[in-house]
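User: Fold this; C-alpha cells only.

Assistant: Input:
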Amino acid sequence: MSGGLDVLALREDDVTKFLACQTHLGATNLDFQMEQYVFKRKSDGIYIINLKKTWEKLLLAARAIAAVENPADVCVISARPYGQRAVLKFASHTGATPVAGRFTPGTFTNQIQAAFREPRLLVVTDPRQDHQPVTEAAYVNIPVIALCNTDSPLRYIDIAIPCNNKSIHSIGLMWWLLTREVLRLRGSISREVPWEIMVDLYFYRDPTEEQNKEEDTSGLEVVAKKDEYQGDWATTDLSLAAPEVTDWAAEALAPVAPAAVAPGYTAAKDWSATDTGDWAASSAPATGVTSDWGGSAAENWG
C-alpha cells in the first residue's frame, strides 16, 4: 500500500526493529493461505516471513483504522496476556475500545447483556486464540484485522498482517508500529520527527519478575540501613563504670531506736516479764466450802 512513495517506504531503523524482535520468524507449520507471505524455510523447519509484505499489510490496516470517523468504534481485542498491555496502550493513544482478557460470548450478537457493543472495525492479536470475537464479527458483518503467523487460520479475516504473534517483543512492536502509522495518517504526529513514545511500553511485563525486583531493592535498602546503624554503634563509647560492690555481711547492724508513742496512749507492758504464777492453783475452789446440790435426804419426792 505504499504505492512507491518514499514517505511510506520501509525505513532501515524499522527493519532493524523487525529483526531485533524476531518478527520475521514464523512457526514450523504453514497454512495454505499464508504461503503468499512466506519468503523461505530454514533448515530447522522454521518459515521466514517476507517483511516487505508485512509492512504493506501494516499500512493497509492503518489506513482502514484511520478511515473510521469515531475512534471508539474500533475494537481491539487480545485474550493472550502477551498482547493485553499493547492493546491497552493502543487504545489509550488512538481512542479505540479495548477488550483485554476474556471475551464475553455474545458481546457483538446479544443485545440484552450490558456489555453489548456494535463496533465498525475489529482488530485481534491472534485469530486462533480470539476465535470467538472473530466468529461473532462474521455474524454481524464487522471487518476483522488480525496479526497472523504462518500457521494461523484466515477464516473470517479480512486483513491479515503476517508476523510472529507468539513472541512478546514481536507483538509489542507490531502494535507500536500500527499505533504510530494511525497517528501519522490522522495528522497527530509528524513523519519527520521520531515518535517520543518508546516501544518498550508496549512489551509484556511479568508481574512476578517486577515483584522480585521490588523485593531485591527493598532488601538492599534494609542492608544499607543496618550497616549505617552498626557504624553509629561502633563509633559510640559503650564502656560503663562498674558499680562498687561492698560486703554486706561485714557491715555492723545499727541499733534501732524505739518507736515514739502517740499522745494519749501509754506504752504497753512487757508481757514476757510479768509473773503469771500458777493458774491451776488460783483457779481451784476452797476445800472447806461445799454445797449440796442434791437437796435434803429426808425430802420425799414420791
